[in-house]
Amino acid sequence: MVKKTISTEEKILEAAKTVFHRKGYEGARMQEIADEAGINKALLHYYFRTKENLFDAVFRSAFQEIFTKLFSTIGSDVPLEEKLTNLIGTYIGFLQKNSYIPGFILNELSHNPEKIVEIFKTAPVPPSMILKRMRKSLNDEKMKKTDFRDLFINMLALCIFPIVARPMIQHIFEFSDQEYDQFIENRKKELPVFIMNAIRKK
Amino acid sequence: MVKKTISTEEKILEAAKTVFHRKGYEGARMQEIADEAGINKALLHYYFRTKENLFDAVFRSAFQEIFTKLFSTIGSDVPLEEKLTNLIGTYIGFLQKNSYIPGFILNELSHNPEKIVEIFKTAPVPPSMILKRMRKSLNDEKMKKTDFRDLFINMLALCIFPIVARPMIQHIFEFSDQEYDQFIENRKKELPVFIMNAIRKK
DNA sequence: GTCTATATTGTGATAGAC
DNA sequence: GTCTATCACAATATAGAC
């Protein structure tokens, strides 16, 4: 028999996720989270005692969600171009459906840089393992002597920035909402080519 | 005779800039701004009436500062590779000295997307003019049929992201502060090459 | 213009009944 | 576990003297 009931704790976490992503830590209000969850403030404190505890749970979950996705794709054992295509496609797809997450993380990152160190320590996939595999892919193929750290960062930048800076870019180029969605969709195909051209040996 | 006195209004704007960049809109406190300016809260309200008015002035200034720099370099009339090198060098240099600005803008952008439309309307350099010149550069040279909008966005992304996500990246790759500065410094030389490789006709 | 003092409203957090 | 009522305090904003 399928469990249909959602526990109060889960409802709170869902609501908190929504509100924190929408407003950030300082901007979020316990009242708004309570309303979103259909309960009252007192119950929030009963479950999580403080706003910071609640925030910690949400931030940790957002961070791990995005990095688990990212790292599992990057760690797969396929040729570089195929890996890039998979990686960029699934990653941008994820960002499209969760467009608040990268902005949220970047935001809290700049106000609480110490916090991410702690979160990385409890990451389900240790970054060092990912990096090792990525370096291997580069060496196996006939690539320019590209620093794999640069490659990794460039890829992240090219995927995330158009999502985070969407309102700005959309206005500069006078895109409609629909046109911008299409623009992002095209990038899924064009980014892997762009990157491969940049690093392929002539 | 050089004017040495700094008006109270200028002191307030300087202080507000510092505090808003450090804490964001919600996180900033009028008291902290007053302390930073060496005056008291009442005087803030005397000059700017509300916190939002003060914020508007600061945000507008940060936004125009970064875009004026960006647009004036991108609009120069030199060959593409040279333009890219100039652009990336001066732009990253600017970001290094004002590392809080892009994070600040991205942050408030995600909480007040409407606001940027208004700010763009009062921009000193109209975006449309920049785009025209950029398109011209691409056509003049033997380049792949690259969408100039993609090129523009990719360049922004590659410059800004390593600055904004610094604490995260620094931890992943276990860079010391000094090593990260050097890493950014290297990107000034490598990014133009990376981009030119990506878009040059074979 | 600049200050001290105070009003007013928000918000995170708790007490205590059920 | 869940609620209502309330506390304690922090933050924006204003009044009014100088």
How would you characterize the overall build of this protein?
- 2 copies of one chain form a homodimer.
- Chain A has 202 residues and is mainly α.
- Chain A has 2 domains: 1-49, Arc Repressor Mutant, subunit A (Orthogonal Bundle), CATH 1.10.10.60; 58-199, Orthogonal Bundle (Tetracycline Repressor, domain 2), CATH 1.10.357.
- The first copy, chain A, is built from 11 helices and no strands.
- Chain A has helices at 8-27, 30-37, 41-48, 51-74, 80-97, 100-111, 113-121, 127-140, 148-164, 166-172, 177-199.
- In chain A, helix 4 (51-74) runs antiparallel to helix 5.
- The model of chain A has no long low-confidence stretch (mean pLDDT 87).
- Chain A binds a DNA duplex (18 and 18 nucleotides) through residues 8, 29-31, 39-47, 49-51.
Summarize this, please?
The structure is a homodimer of 202-residue chains. Helices cover 79% and strands 0% of the residues of chain A. With 202 residues, chain A is mostly helical.
Fold topology:
2 copies of one chain form a homodimer.
Chain A: H1 8-27, H2 30-37, H3 41-48, H4 51-74, H5 80-97, H6 100-111, H7 113-121, H8 127-140, H9 148-164, H10 166-172, H11 177-199
Helix pairs in contact in A: 1-2, 1-4, 1-6, 4-5, 5-9, 5-11, 6-7
The first copy, chain A, binds a DNA duplex (18 and 18 nucleotides) through helix 3.
